[in-house]
Amino acid sequence: MTPTRTRRIAATAVMALAGGLSACLRQPTADPSGRSAPVAPATTAAASSARPSVTPYTTATRTATAGTAWGPLTVAAGAWQGWKPVLEDLRPATDDDVADLRRRAGAAARRDFTATVESFFGPAEYAHRSDHARLRFGAGGSTALEVHVEPLRPGEKGKGVFGLGGRAAVLCLGDECVRVTGDEDPEGKPHLFDNLSDSALMQLALLESSQEVSFDLFEGARKEGYAVGTASVESPVGVLDCAVDAETSTALRALDGEPLGLGSAGDRTWTATCVDARGLVVVTGDSAFPLVAFHDFRPGTDADIDSYPAPVKPYGA
């Protein structure tokens, strides 16, 4: 498999999910015109989710405790916008190096936490429990939209693009909650619900799959002849530990000191995936979703994470 084709796989997978979620049946509504139900504009949903309080940000120093920290964090407003990540301390990786990063990400996926993350539409609350995950736009009574999925169990591989197919997903908008399976028949329609709702569902699927299977690419990359290395990157949430692959050993060595360039991830011929000290995946190899920008983080979740604001009905009912 050529380097170009390997990078195309990630891009194709992104587009396939976008198509799978958006090129589907609209949820029937009472509107005789056939238009989908009105949805809060993206700007409204984003504005209703207040950013967390901030503390001054200083770059964390490297320690030997990577993978053991599980304390709360708060990131200064604007820290991610001004972030210019650079790959440092790059060296060839052993199989154990990548396995350790995969283990750390997997351990975090089995723990419970709540965070504010930058979504496609602004800040959103991301709550993850080992058996349930929720992405909520808005806060408290002003919640505009929320989506739920069931995380994969250890050792499972998701079905379909990003593992969404075959595991329960529920989308709640206003006083209506609808369950989808990923198997809905598109029938040539442009959306499953509408652009905002479909994108929110896609975002949570990406958040979950990034944490669950983000390092699997490197096992395949090594088998296909890619050079795999490890590197570190300073970030607003501390030092990140990364797996990196490139076409050749020479190309890999040349990446030491190079900007990560998240905005152009789809154009380059190398991939980086990075976790923080907690094992949270911050940088992904996904060309559509290369950064998980955590604004704050706390261990545990609220008791209502798996509660729905309305009865759940099947899609199309």
Description:
With 317 residues, the chain is of the alpha+beta class. It has a domain at 113-211. It has six helices and 14 strands. It has a nine-stranded mixed β-sheet. A hairpin with a 5-residue loop joins β11 and β12 (281-283). α1 crosses α4 and α3 crosses α4 (195-213). The model is unreliable at 1-66 (pLDDT under 50).
Helix content bin? 10-25%
Unreliably modeled segments: 1-66
The outline comes out as globular
| Major sheet: arrangement of strands | 1-13-3-4-5-6-7-8-14
What is the H-and-E element order? HHEEHEEEEEEHHEEHEEEE
CA(first)-CA(last) distance? 44 Å
- Total strands: the figure is 14
- Mean pLDDT reading: 75
Class from secondary-structure proportions: alpha+beta
The radius of gyration over CA amounts to 20 Å
Q: What is the beta-strand fraction? A: 15-25%
Count of discrete alpha- or pi-helical segments spanning 4 or more residues: 6
Largest sheet report: 9 strands, mixed
Characterize this entry briefly.
23% of the residues lie in helices and 23% in strands.
